[in-house]
Specification:
Radius of gyration of chain B: 21 Å
CATH class of the largest domain in chain A: Alpha Beta
Largest interface: A-B, 64 and 64 residues
Structural class of chain B: alpha/beta
Distance between the termini of chain A: 70 Å
Helix content of chain A: 25-40%
Oligomer: heterodimer
Shape of chain A: globular
Number of domains of chain A: 7
CATH superfamily of the largest domain in chain A: ATP-grasp fold, B domain
Largest sheet of chain B: 11 strands, mixed
Largest sheet of chain A: 7 strands, antiparallel
Number of helices of chain B: 12
Helix content of chain B: 10-25%
CATH topology of the largest domain in chain A: D-amino Acid Aminotransferase, Chain A, domain 1
Shape of chain B: globular
Strand content of chain A: 15-25%
Chain lengths: 1127, 409
């Protein structure tokens, strides 16, 4: 059947903020879907609360709603936009859950709107574990023995039948949240308790353990005519027991015979048919007992998933794009395969290479967390690599992680084989390294199979890598044959250097002299059977290259690598925009990146895509290959975060032109002494500061400037290693903790700043072309200085800053831009403390807030920056209409207010005792994503941001208050307001006393720490009910708890952990609380929705009016004199 | 592991790839072809259709799951030579008995590893399948000109009849493994085990007969139906099989052919056959059943194809009534199936028995079974079954198909 003619408008539901388990792969899939639908002439209405995404660019939909993804908000959108259909299968579990809500609340029926992609029945069959299990059995498949429990008692009974260990999975949670292994009765009680709470249907599934089995996934697609294809098979190197998102995975599956593979395929096809996904894709997970071959179906997702994005990048088959076409009625054989142009999409891609994905973790951000990997996903990003064999792909993937120690090393260590085997037994970040070390130390493949369950074939590949390493070590010299041999197993120049006791540059010189350079092969879906039209390349040390010469002017854009906390989708957004803008400007754009989740690694985004690690070696080889033809104008390094920026110097040294701000200028901003000079020249001040490379120096600095101090390693992103230090002992402790992480050293000194208590923090994003400064936006943080800008909420335009302050910020930014010599983007962070404007730091690169500014004010900063980098002036960009006449330093009176709120992953991380890690915000960033609320004023916008981030404040209920002494003064007004709004109050004794003196009555509860030791695990009978208990009993709806400085955190920690575990709104700063209280009335009246396109129209009207009135006033008075920069 | 001896792969147009010896050491000649399947190397190398061919695997890692006793498609390895990029050093599978390397060596199959198989594939795709040779060990050091001369003086695939080489010497019977509905005589042109299983599982007593069988001997078996198998060689060089088939068709005996059998049905009906530039070899090929509008993902292994008009039924040039092209390859619009509308006969160019490959097309054996049963009532009923398909793939899960085909599922 061709395209349906009864679908003229589609509401696409996005996946909301980036969280662990649901990252920018859904921006990739959603962006593809929006593109496809618009190409098909369908009106696209989009709802997504995440401003950092490409899909929420106004260009990708006809009506873009950056609004909370709740069924109520979606109903408002449906009522307004009247879509013919809703596509919920491309926005992850969030969109699917929203679709279920819309169904159960009768909204679909009420507005006569159809779910496409997967209907309610299909979603339910795939998601409801009991129904799904029966369906698998009916289809002749096998499942793990299991029971459903709705109560703790049912769970205990089930455990008696299944035995320990067993698996616990709450129903309808995403990314496996709350699931894991219970080894004991105690584990079971805790996990089932949490799971019942987390599951929207209050049920958990308990299953027999299949830990250690081989794990596989298939990605399937099916159309209205029941044509079904398997797009990709994926094999997990880490066996069952580690969430697939946390596993090293490989495509295609490498350890199955055809019979075994076809059996999985048959089962998969039966399941997709039985579930009834008839216009889209699904993902099915299998476990195979390595000893007997028994196959168990673990689960299926009736939607595009993280693995679909991986499979799309791994095969070149764009699953989301095809899924969107199927959803509007096309059949697979009616859709062409973009890559060959001549063959249809109704085929199964075949690979002549190996793809390896490795997860990237952030345990360093959560030192208290148990780093053991389980069936709850904990990784925050991933890198993918393509190689002509497994060893190459694995080694490339490991170095793509850009994490110290992620690549295999052969440097001598003292660890014994036995110690390494023990280490390898527990799945953790970097286990693969322990495996390699253990093999090196003499462990056998059998021994490692015994402790890890990793298939012997993969283990042997690591043996092979060790053998090649030994050959390299033993050889007389690095000759061409040996170099090729090493390169054909993925060794980097840096690894060769380590093995040979040389410098990486020396190895590179030897290699180049020997003529050993990679060729570039093509991802073509068909193993070379048909010519590929799409230049999607990866390197290999094979014979023949497939890079087609071009005589165009080329720009290379370096992406931002795997997502991590501090460097996520925001940077991909900027890279993608640069690709679009430069392509429009006539350049041939060449993208290098290794993150399979992103839009930048979609072969449609740039003219050429190289899926390669972002290391100097790999980037130089791509540049070498591309330099063989046409003209290389230069490389864009300022959009891909610290990853790309970090390569600037090396590239420049190799003679590669860097576009925009020069590496020397980048140094000016990063190097404290040089930067101070710039500030001095401009008459600007920074908090008192100094630098140190070891403890003694740091103590001297701290003593001279006075505590508290803010310590910050240079050249890091996301506040890695950033802390507020209150005394010398803590400073010594800090140095102990960062020891060996390589974040502070002679070339990377530690910056020690006087910490500004109670200051207002301000962020500005701006463009500078050498002459003119163009402000993107001035953002006021809601939390005071000391909370990392990535974790604090902020508002655009500022809501409490005066015109004079904003002007001062603008002027200071101009002076800094000139001083550094910025060409392109600049982000500066300021603080206003006691009326003084301090410069905290300047970053001559794209910041995390670039997309937020673009969505809030409609200013395409990244596009403009990329054009400035190739020589365009801001004046000409304004004249062309790319940039609005009025920059972001003045926001019209009637403009909407946008609030960005961070989303934090505390709930995913448990201590070894099973408690949630502490959730206090600090200078080290820990949020994974962000949402935006936009509305006519701050309270409404803030309320939306809270709703989108965590579900928002309840309209009424019980509030618990316990704050540090320094916050007691500030707490009174917000708490009074809460009481007036009808909330009842509970407080700890000290806080209650302050409140009572101010005329606010609050019930008193006991502190957790006053529990008798013997009562910690039981009831505190006789005494006041303690607060942790009350939270756990669901008797508290909102928790306000601020940490009391440097110590006495224990009590606060228990309260916060309980609040996070129970999913209660938790305020750890008074600023945040005050904003939330101000927004409660907005919540009570319900949300109105406005699309970005409507805001743009309003802006156009408003600026036309402003221009008219300016013209009128200009007629009467002289133009305002030019402002003179400060200093 | 000690590095293996040097080896070189030489194509008749002079292109050379240097690598390492794999399997047996020595020299091997054959037509250079590539296959794109990512699984099923054991089935591939034991598929008689590959006789006379040096097969290159586009999938880089080969041999990972070793070799077992259940998966071979015939009693021996048939490929003339074997080209892989990264042969497995170990075997990892609970069913494995031996390593692939051991089997290749034991059966004297000369292979080469460590070459740029993708460059080779692209070369063959652009220039077409061609004669080639692997020289390994001491032969690798022969003068390149001499090696090339040896290649160019080896026989070409076109015009080659390889049936005798691969066929059984003596007839044998495999009893039906389901309720018996009749018997089928399989002309063994390179039969695969999976096909025999599939037919036996549909209730046929299966008589596998040598390709040289005379018409009298064939009809003396009194088969309910006749089946022509897949196999190597040029269909233009198979006059005996075509003449025999024409007699089968004239008698109105229900007929089903696969692969080479499809080409021979085409020729028996009076159509031509031609050599494809580089053939179809893989397990991911989309084929459209033009009568149901369904797309099947199918296993292919053919270098020749039938030249018949794609649009609409036409009269058989050899006088067997109307014929239509029932199946078409969607990648390149090659004829992938023929259906006779006036006699009970049909065939497909691809492999419904799979092994290696997907089970999407296993329903064709059911259609054949239904046709044979209907032929017990009348010829018209049999033709009806085959020419107006009612056994749709939707009716049957691929698992059922596989189960009936005798797979362990």
């Amino acid at each position: 059947m061709p395209k349906r003619d009864d679908i003229n408008s589609v509401l696409v539901i996005g996946s909301g903020p980036i969280v662990i388990g649901q990252a920018c792969e859904f921006d990739y899939s959603g962006t593809q879907a929006c593109r496809v639908l618009r190409e098909e002439g369908v009106r696209v209405i989009l709802v997504n609360s995440n401003p950092a995404t490409i899909m929420t660019d106004p260009d990708f939909a006809d009506a873009t709603y950056i609004e909370p993804i709740t069924w109520q908000v979606i109903e408002t959108i449906i009522a307004k936009e009247k879509p013919d259909a809703i596509l919920p299968t491309l926005g992850g579990q969030t969109a699917l859950n929203a679709a279920i809500d819309l169904h159960t609340h009768g909204i679909l029926e009420k507005y006569d709107v159809e779910l496409i992609g997967a209907n309610f029945e299909a979603i339910n069959k795939g998601e409801d574990r009991q129904i799904f299990k029966q369906l698998v059995l009916d289809a002749g498949g096998d499942v793990a023995r299991s029971h459903i429990a709705h109560t703790i008692d049912e769970a205990l009974a089930a455990a008696d039948d299944l035995g320990y260990p067993l698996v616990i999975r709450p129903s309808f949670t995403m990314g496996g949240l709350g699931s894991g292994f219970a080894y004991t009765r105690q584990d079971l009680l805790r996990m089932v308790g949490d799971g019942l709470h987390q599951s929207p249907t209050s049920e958990v599934l308990m299953e027999e353990s299949i830990i250690g089995w081989k794990e596989y996934e298939l990605e399937l697609m099916r159309d209205t005519s029941d044509n079904t294809v398997v797009v990709c098979s994926i094999e997990n190197v880490d066996p069952v027991g580690v969430h697939t998102g946390d596993s090293i995975t490989v495509a295609p599956a490498l350890t199955l015979t055809d019979r075994e593979y076809q059996n999985l395929r048959d089962i998969g096809m039966d399941i997709i048919r039985a579930v009834g996904v008839d216009t889209g894709g699904c993902n099915i997970q299998f476990a195979i007992d390595p000893a007997t071959g028994r196959v168990i179906v673990i689960e299926m997702n009736p939607r595009v998933s993280r693995s679909s994005a991986l499979a799309s990048k791994a095969t070149g088959f764009p699953i989301a794009k095809i899924a969107a076409k199927l959803a509007i009625g096309y059949r697979l054989d009616e859709i062409p395969n973009d890559i060959t142009g001549v063959t249809p999409a109704s085929f199964e891609p075949t690979l002549d290479y190996v793809v390896v994905k490795v997860p990237r973790f952030a345990f360093e951000k959560f030192p208290a967390a148990d780093a053991r990997l389980t069936t709850t996903m904990k990784s925050v990003g991933e890198a993918m690599a393509i190689g002509r064999n497994f060893s190459t792909a694995l080694q490339k993937a490991l170095r793509s992680l850009e994490k110290r120690g992620s690549s295999f090393s052969w440097a001598p260590t003292n660890a014994t084989k036995e110690e390494l085997l023990v280490l390898a037994e527990i799945p953790t970040d970097g286990r693969i390294g322990s495996v390699q070390r253990a093999l090196l130390a003499g462990a056998t493949v059998d021994e490692l199979f015994e402790v890890t369950g990793i298939d012997p074939w993969f283990l042997d590949q690591i043996v092979l890598i060790n053998e090649v390493a030994a050959e390299i070590q033993a050889a007389d010299s690095l000759d061409a044959d040996l170099l090729r041999h090493a390169k054909d197993h993925g060794f980097s120049d840096a690894q060769l250097a380590e093995l040979r006791g040389l410098d990486e540059h020396e190895v590179r010189a030897i290699r180049w002299n020997a003529g050993v350079r990679p060729v570039f092969k093509t991802v073509d879906t068909c193993a070379g059977e048909f010519p590929a039209l799409t230049p999607y390349h990866y390197s290999s040390y094979d014979e023949e290259t497939e890079v087609i010469p071009s005589d165009r002017r080329k720009v290379v854009i370096l992406g931002s690598g795997p997502n991590r906390i501090g460097q996520g989708v925001e940077f991909d957004y900027s890279c993608v925009h640069a690709a679009f803008a430069l392509s429009d400007a006539g350049y041939e754009t060449i993208m290098i990146n290794c993150n399979p989740e992103t839009v930048s690694t979609d072969y449609d985004t740039s003219d050429r895509l190289y899926f390669e690690p972002l290391t100097l070696e790999d980037v130089l080889e791509v540049i070498h290959a591309e330099s063989a033809s046409g003209e290389l104008v230069g490389v864009v390094v300022q959009l891909g975060g610290q990853t790309a920026l970090g390569l600037a110097k090396g590239l420049e040294a190799a003679g590669v032109p860097i576009l925009g701000t020069t590496p020397a200028a980048i140094d000016l901003a990063e190097e404290r002494g040089l930067f101070s000079g710039i500030l001095d020249d401009a008459g600007l001040v920074a908090p008192k500061n100094g630098t140190a490379i070891e403890l003694t120096g740091a103590l001297d600095v701290a003593t001279s400037i006075g505590y508290p101090v803010l310590v910050r390693p240079s050249y890091v992103l996301g506040g890695r290693g950033m802390e507020i230090i209150y005394d010398s002992a803590s400073l010594a402790d800090y140095f102990d903790r960062i020891e060996g992480q390589g974040i502070v050293g002679p070339s990377h000194p530690l910056l020690v700043d006087r910490f500004l208590d109670d200051a207002i923090e301000i962020d500005i994003d701006a463009l500078f072309d050498g002459e003119r400064l163009y402000v993107g936006g001035v953002m006021e943080h809601i939390e005071e200085a000391g909370v990392h800008s990535g974790d604090s909420s902020c508002t655009l335009p500022p809501v409490t800053l005066g015109r004079g302050q904003i002007d001062a910020v603008r002027d200071a930014t101009l002076a800094i831009a000139k001083g550094i010599g910025v060409r392109g983007l600049l982000n500066v962070q300021f603080a206003i403390g006691a009326g003084v404007l301090y410069v905290l730091e300047a970053n001559p690169r794209a910041s995390r807030t670039v997309p937020f500014v673009a969505k809030a004010l409609g200013i395409p900063l990244a596009k403009a920056a990329s054009l400035i980098m190739v020589g365009r002036s801001i004046d000409s960009l304004v004249a062309d209409g790319l940039l609005p006449e009025q920059d972001g330093s003045i926001v019209p009176f009637d403009s909407p207010v946008a609030v960005k709120e961070a989303v934090l992953p505390f709930k995913r991380f448990r201590t070894t005792e099973g408690r949630v890690v502490d959730s206090v915000l600090g200078p080290e960033m820990r949020s994974t994503g962000e949402v935006m609320g936009i509305d006519r004023d701050f309270p409404r916008a803030f309320a939306k941001s809270q709703e989108a981030a965590y579900g928002g404040l309840p309209p009424t209920g019980t509030v618990f208050v316990s704050v540090a002494d320094r916050d007691k003064r500030a707490i009174i007004l917000p708490v009074l307001r809460l009481q007036q709004l009808g909330f009842s109050l509970l407080a700890t004794e000290g806080t209650a006393e302050v409140l009572r003196r101010n005329g606010i009555e609050a019930g008193v509860v006991g502190k957790y720490s006053t529990r008798g030791d013997g009562l910690r695990d039981g009831r505190s009978d006789g005494d006041l009910p303690d607060i942790v208990e009350l939270i756990e009993q669901d008797k508290v709806d909102v928790v306000i708890n601020t940490p009391s400085g440097r110590s006495a955190r224990a009590d606060g920690y228990e309260i916060r952990a309980a609040a996070v575990a129970a999913d209660k709104p938790l305020f750890t700063t008074i600023a945040q609380l005050a904003a939330a209280v101000a927004s409660i009335e907005a919540i009570q009246t319900g949300f109105e929705v406005t699309s970005l396109q409507e805001y743009a129209d309003q802006r156009a009207v408003s600026s036309a009016r402003a221009a008219a009135s300016a013209a009128a006033s200009a007629a009467h008075s002289a133009a305002r004199p030019e402002r003179i920069p400060a200093g | 592991m000690a590095p293996s001896a040097p080896a070189v792969f030489v194509l008749e147009d002079g292109r050379r790839f240097r690598g390492r010896a794999y399997g047996a050491v020595g020299r091997a000649f054959g037509e250079a072809v590539f296959t794109t399947g990512m699984t099923g190397y054991q089935e591939t190398i034991t598929d008689p259709s590959y006789a006379g061919q040096i097969v290159a695997q586009t999938a880089p890692h080969i041999g990972n799951t070793g070799v077992n006793d259940e998966d071979p498609e015939s009693a021996r390895i048939w490929v003339a030579g074997y080209v892989v990029r990264d042969p497995s050093r170990v075997v990892s599978n609970h069913r494995a008995k031996r390593s692939l390397d051991d089997d290749l060596t034991a059966q004297g199959i000369v292979g080469i590893s460590g070459i740029d198989t993708r460059a080779l594939t692209r070369h063959l795709r652009d220039r077409g399948a061609m004669r080639s040779a692997i020289f390994s060990g001491p032969d690798a050091d022969l003068d390149p000109a001499e090696q090339l001369t040896l290649v160019t003086s080896s026989p070409e695939m076109s015009g080659l009849n390889l049936s005798a080489e691969v066929s059984t010497d003596t007839a044998y019977t495999v009893d039906a493994t389901a309720e018996r509905i009749g018997s089928v005589a399989i002309l063994d042109l390179g039969i695969k085990a999976a096909t025999i299983h599939a037919l036996a599982a549909r209730g046929f007593d299966v008589h596998v007969v040598p390709e040289s069988i005379s018409a009298d001997d064939l009809f003396a078996l009194d088969p309910t139906a006749v089946f022509y198998s897949n196999g190597p060689g040029d269909p233009e060089a198979s006059d005996h099989h075509i003449a025999l088939l024409q007699q089968v068709l004239k008698r109105g005996i229900p007929f089903f052919g696969i692969c080479f059998g499809n080409q021979l049905l085409g020729r028996a009906l009076g159509f031509g056959t031609y050599k494809l530039p580089f053939g179809h070899r893989g397990i991911n090929q989309p084929v459209l059943d033009r009568r149901t509008g369904r797309v099947e993902i199918t296993a292919h292994n053919h270098g020749f194809a039938v030249d018949a008009p794609l649009d609409g039924p036409v009269e058989s040039p050899a006088g067997f009534g109307r014929v239509e092209v029932s199946h078409v390859g969607l990648n390149d619009q090659v004829v992938e199936g023929l259906a006779c509308l006036d006699i009970p006969a049909f065939s497909v160019q691809y492999h419904p028995e799979a092994a290696a490959g997907p089970h999407d097309s296993a329903y064709l054996f059911d259609r054949f079974r239904a046709m044979v049963i209907a032929s017990g009532e009348s010829a018209e009923a049999a033709i009806e079954v085959e020419s107006s398909p009612d056994v749709l793939p939707t009716d049957r899960s691929p698992r059922d198909g596989a189960r009936l085909a005798g797979e362990d599922v």
